[in-house]
Amino acid sequence: MSLCSYVLLECRCEARRDAPLIASEIYQEAIAVPYLTTLTVFARRQGPLEGRMQLFCMTADRPAGRSLEKRDDYVKVATLHDVEVTAL
């Protein structure tokens, strides 16, 4: 069984020379396989007006950044589950 999809690319007069580039970008995005991840944001203050954030993107169901919280005094700010990510 084969699944085919087609994209009709309409180009205005000034954009015709960009059509191959646009078509290539559409194709690259269409063939990318998405996967689900969990995003966790950690933060810590470095001063009264300065801070640092780190974003973890995990595909496994393991606790995120336990050593980061203990070792570097980071605090978990937010966690987003089942975020769809495509690798380009």
Layout of helices and strands, plus pairs?
Elements: H1 19-31, E1 34-45, E2 51-58, H2 66-72, E3 75-86
Antiparallel strand pairs: 1-2, 1-3
Structure described in brief:
The chain has 88 residues and is of the alpha+beta class. The chain has helices at 19-31, 66-72; strands at 34-45, 51-58, 75-86.
- Element string (H = helix, E = strand): HEEHE
CATH topology name of the domain at 34-86, in short, is Immunoglobulin-like
Q: Could you tell me the number of beta strands?
A: 3
Reading off the top of the CATH hierarchy, the class of the domain at 34-86 is best stated as Mainly Beta
Largest sheet: 3 strands, antiparallel
Report the average pLDDT across residues. 76
Low-pLDDT segments, ≥5 res: none
Radius of gyration from the alpha-carbon trace, in angstroms = 21 Å
- The structure class reads alpha+beta
Which CATH-level-2 architecture of the domain at 34-86? Sandwich
How big a fraction of the residues is strand?
A: 35-45%
Counted by DSSP, the helix tally is 2
Strand order of the largest sheet: 2-1-3
Helical residue percent band: 10-25%
Amino-to-carboxy terminus distance: 26 Å
Structure overview:
There is one protein chain. The protein is an alpha+beta fold and 88 residues long. The chain has a domain at 34-86: Immunoglobulin-like (Sandwich), CATH 2.60.40. It has helices at residues 19-31, 66-72, and strands at 34-45, 51-58, 75-86. The protein has a three-stranded antiparallel beta sheet, with no helix packed on it. A hairpin with a 5-residue loop joins strand 1 (34-45) and strand 2. The chain is elongated. The model has no long low-confidence stretch (mean pLDDT 76).
